[in-house]
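Re: beginner question about structure tokens

> Can someone show what the tokenized structure looks like for a real chain? I only ever see the sequence side.

Sure, here's an example I had lying around. Input first:
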Amino acid sequence: MSTTDRTSDPDAPERTDGTEDAAGSTDGADGADGAGEARAPGRVGRPRASDADGLLAEQLLRLTRRLHRIQKRHLEPVGITPAQSRLLRTVAAFGEPPRMADLAARLEVVPRAVTSLVDGLEAAGRVRRAPDPDNRRVIRIELTDAGRATLRELRSARRAAAEDILAPLTAEQREVLGGLLTALVDPGPEGGR
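And the corresponding structure tokens:
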């Protein structure tokens, strides 16, 4: 995530893998807009494959930003940021209350980012820190009743946000899009680097 995006969402976790979040790149270095790009000989009027890929990447970035704005708008009445929402869902996904290090690893962020998110959620009564019963030096993060209620509200907010963004698509188009996004998000052992 870029510094610009972090200032607009101070709760956004900092990534540790050296990559930018999809919404974080705004440099346009791909030449995605096609301005000043040369065309391949004999292909007048049709962009080169790299031009088309750059345009597609720019469209994905714009879609990601739009989705983030829509999601943020739907989360405001719940009183939670997108980053806090993601952390809350991650805590709920564990079979037992996770450690801070578990959350940082799952979210691919630095531990201090998890600490500040947990602080905010704990202040709102949505999670609590609890000592591990087997090792009192280890702190685990537990959902509270308020946290579980917030998760129910989040599911409704996410459905509404998804409907806003997907409204122009038919059910068949949504299914195709889902398959394409799965291929991009989880490319498997050969596509991942």
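Each token stands for a local structural state, so reading them left to right follows the chain. Residues 1-43 have pLDDT under 50 and may be disordered.
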